[in-house]
Amino acid sequence: MTDKKLYRQRSKKKVRYGPDMRILIVGGGVAGLTLSALLLKRGFKPKLVERAPRLSKVGYVIVLWPSGSKILKGLGVYEKLLEKGCQFTSYYVSNNKGEILKTYTIEPVAEKYGPIISIYRPDLIDTLMEAVDPDIVQMSTTVEKIEQGADEVEVHFNNGKSGKYDLVIGCDGIRSRTRSQVLGDIPLTYSGMSGWSFWTDPKLSRTDGIVEYWGKGKFFGVWPTKDKLSVFTSVKIPEYSEEHLDNRIQKIKESFKEFGGIVPQMLEHLPDPNEIYFDTYNDIKLDSWSKGRVVLVGDSAHAILPNTGAGASMAMESASVLVEDLCRTDSRYVVNALKQYEQRRKPRVNKVQNQSRMMGKLVYSNSRLLSNLRDYVLKLYSNDLVYKYWDNLLKDPI
Questions:
Q1: Which one of 39, 93, 283, 293 is CB 3.0 to 4.6 Å from 44, fit for a cystine?
Q2: What is the pTM of this model?
Q3: Structural domain total, the chain
Q4: Nearest to 106 by CA among 334, 307, 389
């Protein structure tokens, strides 16, 4: 068939723009809700499916960089974020004995780029939902099968129904089923660190800033949010081992028994084991974030280690970039738009991922000699260097 005949054949097919484009979003977390809200704002009418029966009211602390939180300004919910979140400018780093090694301020960063905000995850989800039409959200729904054709994607759901879409966007997290269905089983990269996170009495903290304790292969961090106090811990574990509720409290106390400062008090006020979240710290790097008309956004595409607190912000940035590219295409050239999205995002995401891995090696050093050297160098690390660190992460265009 000649190019001219092929063009005529394609031109007879309906081309959909903006509101007419059939878009399915899989996953109702930060990435999926941000993407939904931005698309609705631009006149699109996406459909979002979430496997849970309801949006979760439990979760951990999320740190939003200015590059992520400012996206909520265009959605009209930034003030809600400020009401529910906690802006911080003080940052204290101590050794495992509780001796403060350095006190930093990030006020110059906030003044140039905007505040860094910590927030209870369900509060962030609620804030995003205020910018999303609930009619587009379908709960208790999973994608069982994805079949791609040249011009559309047919998706089969767990309720026996199916639908045809111009684009499917996987926002279903680090253990994404969308990713495995389209790209195959791609192993996560384990950092060698695992840990627990939980909420504790905010009265136990003596400051409204972040307090971190760095030990030999161990980390204990305290993060304030609005009327809440989050604890995030890490321990060096060479190989993954299953965590059981029966000995969870004992393992936490045993892991941090030599720590000083406010850690002993917090170990005496540990919540019920069912309220303590355990996870292994993994990330993932993919050669491609898309295949045909299916694309990944957020942790499903570029999960980042928690060392820099960048995961949510990177997901929101990626959602914003993808929406921009979708506004400049139609159902016929969606695949091209997805490639442009990847080209725009990968350099920045790779930079932040690499920074997170480097930070992990610094903080979680399992050598006594290197840990002592790290602590000594930290005392010499000036506020100017901290500013340069953050400036380097925030100055790049999104």
A1: 39
A2: 0.93
A3: 1
A4: 389
